[in-house]
Amino acid sequence: MKILLIEDDIKIIQSLRKGLEENGCEVDIAYDGLIGKHLARKNEYNVIVSDIIIPGINGVQLCQELRQEGVQTPFIMLTALGALEEKLIGFDAGADDYLVKPFDFLELLARIRVVTKRIHSEPISVNVLRYADLEMNLTTREVFRENQRIDLTGKEYALLEYLLRNSERVLSKVDIAEKVWDIRFDTGTNIIEVYITLLRKKIDKDFKVKLIHTHYGVGYVLKQE
Q1: Which of 106, 134, 190, 212, CA to CA, is 20 to 30 A from 1?
Q2: Domains of the chain with CATH codes
Q3: In angstroms, rounded to a whole number, what is the distance separating the alpha carbons of residues 15 and 118?
Q4: Neighbours of 57 (CB within 10 A)
Q5: pTM of the model
């Protein structure tokens, strides 16, 4: 696995690099966002791991610019900022995951495995998923609603795909955590709520008919009102 690690703290980046290499990863490092952007555009990586507060351009801006240029490499943000608003900004920029400092190195390894797993998933035989006026092309990974293209991050796409494949069925947080994140659901995390909020902003906010609904105490469902 080839990883791009972007962090301006020399002790942290060297420690992470050592740990990743000991776990069989090939690691390129950058100490600022501009060098990180150059490397991300030049080379193929399985995942990019970047701090948010870095010189040059910050991690949020870096992720946003790479996504605008069509770079879809899974992106994990590292930061000391743990507020929900900060997480939403990161996810809106196109991040696939968000890890708050201080964190356990084994947790970083687990997050890397989860975000990269979708790249190696088996080909899907059905090319298009549709519900109401929502359409997902599994070949081009494009999403449209009322013929308007909707840009999604990798994890937003995976969550919407799971909702589409199970339309009109209420999905529990346990179901979603296992099928989309490949983890056991932790009642102490609000990651699923965060992504549902992000999806609603893109899928429902600008449309009269809302498709993503909450069944309080149960889970979420994709259905027409």
Answers
A1: 190
A2: 2-120 (3.40.50.2300), 128-222 (1.10.10.10)
A3: 27
A4: 16
A5: 0.62
